[in-house]
Amino acid sequence: MTNKTFTATTAAAALGVLTILGCSAATADASAAKPAITAAHLTGFTTNDGPTEQVTLSGAVGDWGQGVSVNPDGSVNPEHNSQLELQLQRGSFRLDIASIDKAFVSAMAHQFPSDPATCSGHIAVTQHVPVVTGSGTGAYKGVSGDFTLTISLDEVDKPTAGQPCDGTQPFLNQTIITAGPGNLRF
Known about the structure:
single chain, 186 residues, alpha+beta, 24% helix
């Protein structure tokens, strides 16, 4: 092999190594800039119509605690028509539940009770629910993403003598479950 061929081959090999290293470094830098997407599943339940529920976050993120219906200023919101703050063991973040609450209230007004003879019924609505930007604390600082949640209600109302069960009676018992998959980015 001539010296020119050896030099050209060596230069080409060095250029190839530098190109590969450069691409690897660029790829590493690009992937480091993108937040990791983590699959999670949220389940919450309550047996009353209060502003709190027990919640579990499972999957790639394992945590538990309490969900509290709040307004954007953090005050408790018993109407459930703004945000749900997930107060978990390792931090907290909020979900924007305004749209799913509106759909749930509409379903209650038009479909409940589903069995007027027993004053009982079931309602379920499903919607996309985003994480509130900037709401994360602790391990969830900077979190973003969304869930596809279903709110499901099973309820038995108190019959009123001489009146049909129309969903306006006080409830005797109810279970509300909020559940669904999500993707969180950190």
